[in-house]
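User: Can you help me understand a structure? I only have the sequence.
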Amino acid sequence: MLKKLTIISITTFIVIGCATSPLGRKQLTVLPAAQLDTMGTEAFQQLKQQTPVETNKGINRTVKCVADAIVEVSSPNQDWEVVVFRDDTANAFALPGGKIGVHTGLLEVAKNQDQLATVIGHEVAHVLADHSNERVSQDLALQQGMTLIQAVMNPQSQMGQMVMGVLGLGAQFGVILPYSRIQESEADEMGLYFMAKAGFEPKESVKLWQNMSQGGGEKPPEFLSTHPSDETRMARLNQSMNRALQHYQQAQASGKKPRC
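Assistant: Let's start by predicting it. Here is the structure, written out as C-alpha cells:
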C-alpha cells in the first residue's frame, strides 16, 4: 500500500508541474512565478550589499546598452535592472524578477559588444525559459521521492543502504546533471537568437567560446559537468547559425545596429 502511495505522490507532483520550454522541451515547474521573482530580487539585493559595484560610467554605459538591446527583443514588457560588479571572474547572470549582473572580469574575455551580447542573451534566456523554476522543482521532486522511498524500504539494512546509494548516484548523474546541460544548451540557442534579433553579429558567439577555451585551467570532463564543453557549445551554436543569421539580417534591415 505504501509503495502505491509513493508512486501516486510522485506522479501527481510531476503532472501538476508539467510545462513546456520556449524550444518545446517538457519541464517540471511547480513554483509560482511571483515567488521566484521575489527570491531573485532578494538575492540580487544581497549581492549588491556584499559585492563592490563598478562605478565607471563608460563600463556601465556599455553593459547597459548591450543589455537593453537584448531585453528589447526578448522581453520588452519587463523592466530589468542591470548592475556591473567588480569581480575578476569571467561571469554574468540573470535572475527572476528582472535582474542582470555582469562581472568586470567578463569584459576581459568578451572582446566586443557582440561577444558581451552572447553572454547576456544566454543569461536572460535562462530566466525566460524558466530554468530557475525547473531546477528548484527538480530538487523538490528529488527530495520528495527520496523521502518516500526511505519510508518504503528499511534504510538500515545492507540492501537498503546499497539501494539508497545507487539512487543517490542515479539521481545526481541521471537526472540533475543532464537536465542542467540541456538547460545550458537551450539558453545558448535562445541567447543566440536574441542577440541576432537585437542586431549583434551572431558569429561572434563562437569566438567568445574560443576566448573562454583559451582561458586556461583544468576543466572537469563534460559528462561530469553541468555545462557543455566549449567545443560542444561552439558546434551547437554553428548548427543554429543559419537561422541566427536570418534574424541578424532582418534586424540590420530594420535599423537595429547597436553601437555600444
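Now, to help you interpret it: The chain has one domain: 2-253. The chain has a mean pLDDT of 77. Let me know which part you'd like to focus on.
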